[in-house]
User: Which sequence fits this backbone?
């Protein structure tokens, strides 16, 4: 199944800008068996631990995290780009190739001590996920795992995250 998932991912060159090879996961989403398999594998990254909430990162992370949350019987919490969440937020800035971006979480989305599975589609430089981890640490969350469908290992993003908690299904 890992090979089928890998074969389904489409490399799109120079998207969204020149020099980036974008990993297009929509062929996985569009195939019932592959989508289910990706959710099965992401659920396994929790290692059977009790998960109170699955946190997904804007925007493709939402798709996987929401399905994982449903499967685990957990709640779902969005981490979004600044300005999208309606209630009071905590925010965290992180560096992009040029400039910076800000992600937010509702200040009451996670209670201290709640167990969390953080999910995104892809780990690249790790800046986005590291900012999400800081937001969760700030709320006193107990992070069980930080899980990705795809890890671009050559970018070393794992180094910005709690090493023992990072799990990825496919590595490039
Ligand atoms: P980073 O903060 O560099 O780890 O970037 C991670 C975020 O950017 C994830 O939410 C991904 O969805 C997106 N991303 C970064 N690089 C790629 C890529 N080559 N293909 C698809 N998505 C990417």
Assistant:
């Amino acid at each position: 199944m890992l090979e089928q998932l890998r074969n389904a991912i489409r490399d799109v060159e120079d998207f969204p800008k020149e020099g980036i090879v974008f990993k297009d996961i929509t062929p996985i989403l569009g195939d019932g068996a592959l989508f289910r398999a990706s959710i099965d594998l992401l659920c396994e990254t929790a290692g059977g631990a009790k998960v109170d909430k699955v946190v997904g990162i804007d925007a493709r992370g939402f798709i996987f995290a929401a399905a994982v949350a449903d499967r685990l019987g957990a709640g779902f919490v969005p981490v979004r780009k600044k300005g999208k969440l309606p209630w009071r937020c905590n925010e965290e800035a992180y560096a992009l190739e040029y400039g910076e971006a800000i992600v937010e979480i509702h200040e009451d989305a996670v209670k201290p001590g709640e167990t969390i599975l953080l999910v995104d589609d892809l780990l690249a430089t790790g800046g986005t996920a590291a900012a999400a981890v800081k937001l969760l640490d700030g709320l006193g969350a107990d992070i069980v795992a930080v899980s990705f469908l795809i890890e671009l290992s050559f970018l070393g993003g794992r180094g910005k995250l709690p090493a023992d908690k990072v799990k990825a299904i496919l590595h490039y």
